[in-house]
Amino acid sequence: MTQDGDTIFGKIVRREIPATIVYETDTVLAFRDISPAAPSHVLVIPKRPIVSVAHATKDDAQLIGELMLAAAEVARQEGIAEGGYRIVTNIGQHGGQTVFHLHLHVLGGRPMEWPPG
Ligand code: AMP
Fold first, then answer.
1. Cα separation of 101 and 52, whole Å?
2. How many angstroms is it from 89 CA to the middle of ligand 1?
3. Ligand 1 first shell, C-beta below 6 A
4. Looking at ligand 1, which residue's alpha carbon is closest to its atom 16?
5. CA distance 78 to 108
C-alpha cells in the first residue's frame, strides 16, 4: 500500500503485470477485479494516476467524466446495465481504499445491498 506515486494499477497500465482488460481508451483502462465481489466486478481507472477523487482538481474534470462514462459502457458490455448495477469509489482508510490510484468499482449480476457494510 502506498500513497506516494506508483501502485499495482500503474503496473497494469504499463502492462508490467497481467490483468484481464475489458475496455480501454486513450485515457481510461478497465479490467476485472482479481477478487470479485459480484458476478461482474470490473475496475475502471484513469491511466494517469490520481490518488482518489479527493485528490482530483478542476484540471481532472474531463477525465473524471470520461471515467464515469467508461463505467457505464463497461456495464453495457458486461450485460448488467438492464438489471442495474453499482459504481463505487473508496476513499482513504475509512472508505476502505487499499490501492491509492483512483478506481471505480463496477459491480453487478446480483442484487446489491444498501447500506453497504
Ligand atoms: P479498493 O479497496 O477500493 O482500493 O479496491 C482495490 C481493488 O483492487 C480490490 O477490490 C482488489 O481486489 C483489487 N485488486 C488488487 N490488486 C489487483 C490486481 N492485480 N488486479 C486486479 N484487481 C486487483
1. 6
2. 12
3. 8, 19, 33-35, 43, 90, 96-99
4. 34
5. 9
The one-digit pLDDT tens for each residue of the chain (117 residues) are 344 469 999 999 999 999 999 999 999 999 999 999 999 999 999 999 999 999 999 999 999 999 999 999 999 999 999 999 999 999 999 999 999 999 999 999 999 999 987
Q: What residues contact 71, with CB distance under 8 A and at least 6 apart?
A: 30, 44, 87, 104, 106
Q: Is the pTM of this model over 0.85?
A: yes
Distance 38 CA to ligand 1 centre (A): 13
Domains and CATH numbers, the chain: 8-108 (3.30.428.10)
